Amino acid sequence: MKRSTLLILSITGVYSAVLHSAAWSVNNFLMTGPKAYLTFSSSVAAGAHSGMEECKFQFGWERWNCPESALQLSTHNRLRSATRETSFVHAISSAGVMYTLTRNCSLGDFDSCGCDDSRNGRVGGRGWVWGGCSDNVEFGEKVSKLFVDALETGHDTRALINLHNNEVGRLAVKDTMKRACKCHGVSGSCSIQTCWLQLAEFREVGNLLKLKYDQAHKLEMDKRRLRAGNSAESRGATAETFHHIHATELVFLEDSPDYCTRNASLGHQGTEGRECLQSGRNLSQWEKRSCRRLCTECGLRVEERRTEVVSSCNCKFHWCCTVRCEQCRTMVAKHFCTRRDPAAPNHSRQRSRAHRR
């Protein structure tokens, strides 16, 4: 019993350290666990990091832009939040850990892991059979659960929601896998193909989870039964609610706070000072409306600033074998959210009717 407790604390300590550390270093607590965990620890840290980097990309032009405080997976005063944003953080970090473990397994980084050849030899479809070296997502899923799910030691509603969203992230990795094939036959006739499954780009996992975030389901819980904590009544209410939730659906419990304004205790910086986009090549409609979303609808104004950008240019190849470039300086216009002039008319805030981000 003592060893099991120590192991759980070790795993929890590592993952918490990954989420808190700017350098994403591996916590020394892992030294108390089996040698196998030392092998996986750097991949877990890298996976959590890639998950949060994807979070920052997906929410780069949202009011909530996946700040550093989101990496803690908890709020202040020991009260863990269960908002729509928290659900995404759990899903993307869990997916990142599973994805990295699976990829490193395929690269041969682990002695205990190899290709998934469980389907090899079976007919997969007309003109092709399973073969080759499929990415071993079952391995990545198993080890990811060991590290990530160990954070949730309670049995209350929030813990169950977090575990559910962790699993949604892992399922997203599986659902985005691609089939790759190699042709066989006389003179390249490709009369039959050998196919295997491989991981998609992690950006596809992030895109899928972002869509699930937009469609996340709010759990309507009886507040009285919810306050009962880890009681039979509370567990019964939770089981009853989860009965109608699909396994691939992100869920949350609480409405999101106002991300327009700064709240230091919650770690929200607000949108004042944030950069936004107004025009440019290849911008989506969502990006083009970022100034309205981040500035205007939050009671701020858009300020244009001319900024000097230094970039490499006029690059030439010199035999042999270097590339030399010049440094070019150009002035570009950038836009930022700033406070309105106090002397200006007092315009009322326009708040989006959609969920606040």
Automatic annotation (TrEMBL):
GO terms for cellular component: extracellular space. InterPro entries: Wnt, Wnt8, Wnt_C, Wnt_CS. It holds the Pfam family wnt. The keyword Lipoprotein applies. GO terms for biological process: canonical Wnt signaling pathway; cell fate commitment; neuron differentiation. The keyword Nuclease does not apply. Ligand for members of the frizzled family of seven transmembrane receptors. Belongs to the Wnt family. This is Protein Wnt. It comes from Zonotrichia albicollis. The gene is WNT8A.
